[in-house]
Amino acid sequence: MVLFFVGLAFLILGGVFYSKVVEGQFQPDDRQTPALRKADGVDYVKMSKNKNWLINLLNIAGTGPILGPIQGILFGPIAFLAIPLGCVFAGAVHDYFTGMISMRNGGSQVPKLVGKYLGTNVRRIYNVIIAILLLLTGTVFVYTPGDLISNDIMGLDPNSNVIWIIYGLIFVYYILSTILPIDKLIGKIYPIFGAFLLISSVGVFIGIIMKGLPYLQFEGYGLLYDHPAGQKFIPSFFITVACGILSGFHGSQVTLVSRTVSKEKEGVATFYSTMITEGLIAMIWAAGALVLFSSGKAPLDTAGTLMVGQISKNFMGSIGGYLAIIGVIVLPITSGDTAFRSLRLIVSEELNIDQRSNAKRAGVAAVLFVPAIAILYFAKSNPNGFNILWRYFGFTNQLVAVFALGVATTYLITQNKNYFITLVPGIFYTFIVFTFIISAKNIGFGLDIKISYVIGAILAILYAVFVVKNANKRRNEINSIVLD
């Protein structure tokens, strides 16, 4: 119980003070932002500070900061330390620098930033990985809200044929949000979605305070538990709780918002603080899951999507529980729409397709939804399909973040700033992602965990050497490249 409140205090206070350190290294100024300099009424649109904050929060907060912590708390109360530490020193740093570096480069998407700062060959690798991640993200964020609507709102079997109608309606919304100007649909509907998000998170938190505090631990256990599935805390926890700590997917979202921010000095509020807020969401749902697990109200093997409904109704009653479930449904939908929007922008930038034309935007979007539907069909028709989909999503999500942290480190080196604030998280997550995929059975290489640790450590060192040497070697070249 004490650890939960210590973690919350560190998350809030650490975010307030460390954000000043991070901002001091970037040094935002009064230069004209892409939202003003490149205004086109579609993607480059000036929006208010409050609206940008809310849109970015809903863009980045999918089901990850809920389903991930629900599963991650099975590693023990150590989650209440790992989540705030990761948010403050890695996740929020990643989001801030990615958004601000994009702003300094004309609102460019991450692939162009990777090409400029890490090189053309690295960019080619990144393009494949980010395309896979965004397709997986969009598909996951059709699957999970569709099943929650079917099971928890409509009381129907999520494996019935009705589910495909629900999926279809979500896809229709995604198509519209992918094609329409950002302020026409996303900018108008998100405040309503945001209200549901806040109601669900605050409601569960109040419920925990009122009747869950005695159960914020497992009797007879310490800081770290033996995971029921035998997974190791390092690396599995940081893949499982991806979006609640650090998420590469966020890079594709903050670069969208970098095109709607009117002042660089709004960066901390828009990019850094939203990740801290996502960390708060993760802490609340991890605590809610721990209460149900430790009190015996839910078996340890309860599926994450089922736990959402149980946690909501346990702490908020029937009516409040439905409101909370709606809030959770909102999260993936408001991330899935911008996942496809980001993919459209990335594809159009790579292929030089002018996005001012409605027909061209619709054409690119139509092509993207075909493989997404195919992946969704596989996940739904295969008994283990969703588990496979989620684990690959978690792995690619963290792998993408390693590239963005490399971009930020290179930027700081070329600007003669303290690059260790991004290099250290990059080294750690390089170790995590490669250790995971090397040791993972079924989806990875299945090697012994000790061997995986050694290989992961070697690759993490090589990552650091490459990033630093590349930045110093190409310093003059990088500073001469203008992306706009």
TrEMBL record:
<feature type="transmembrane region" description="Helical">
    <location>
        <begin position="420"/>
        <end position="439"/>
    </location>
</feature>
<comment type="similarity">
    <text>Belongs to the peptide transporter carbon starvation (CstA) (TC 2.A.114) family.</text>
</comment>
<feature type="transmembrane region" description="Helical">
    <location>
        <begin position="163"/>
        <end position="182"/>
    </location>
</feature>
<feature type="transmembrane region" description="Helical">
    <location>
        <begin position="362"/>
        <end position="380"/>
    </location>
</feature>
<dbReference type="InterPro" id="IPR051605">
    <property type="entry name" value="CstA"/>
</dbReference>
<feature type="domain" description="CstA N-terminal">
    <location>
        <begin position="168"/>
        <end position="296"/>
    </location>
</feature>
<feature type="transmembrane region" description="Helical">
    <location>
        <begin position="315"/>
        <end position="334"/>
    </location>
</feature>
<feature type="transmembrane region" description="Helical">
    <location>
        <begin position="451"/>
        <end position="468"/>
    </location>
</feature>
<feature type="domain" description="CstA N-terminal">
    <location>
        <begin position="1"/>
        <end position="142"/>
    </location>
</feature>
<feature type="transmembrane region" description="Helical">
    <location>
        <begin position="233"/>
        <end position="257"/>
    </location>
</feature>
<dbReference type="GO" id="GO:0009267">
    <property type="term" value="P:cellular response to starvation"/>
</dbReference>
<keyword id="KW-1133">Transmembrane helix</keyword>
<feature type="transmembrane region" description="Helical">
    <location>
        <begin position="392"/>
        <end position="413"/>
    </location>
</feature>
<keyword id="KW-0472">Membrane</keyword>
<feature type="transmembrane region" description="Helical">
    <location>
        <begin position="269"/>
        <end position="295"/>
    </location>
</feature>
<dbReference type="Pfam" id="PF02554">
    <property type="entry name" value="CstA"/>
</dbReference>
<feature type="transmembrane region" description="Helical">
    <location>
        <begin position="189"/>
        <end position="213"/>
    </location>
</feature>
<dbReference type="GO" id="GO:0005886">
    <property type="term" value="C:plasma membrane"/>
</dbReference>
<feature type="domain" description="CstA N-terminal">
    <location>
        <begin position="309"/>
        <end position="434"/>
    </location>
</feature>
<keyword id="KW-1003">Cell membrane</keyword>
<feature type="transmembrane region" description="Helical">
    <location>
        <begin position="125"/>
        <end position="143"/>
    </location>
</feature>
<feature type="transmembrane region" description="Helical">
    <location>
        <begin position="73"/>
        <end position="94"/>
    </location>
</feature>
<protein>
    <submittedName>
        <fullName>Carbon starvation protein A</fullName>
    </submittedName>
</protein>
<keyword id="KW-0812">Transmembrane</keyword>
<dbReference type="InterPro" id="IPR003706">
    <property type="entry name" value="CstA_N"/>
</dbReference>
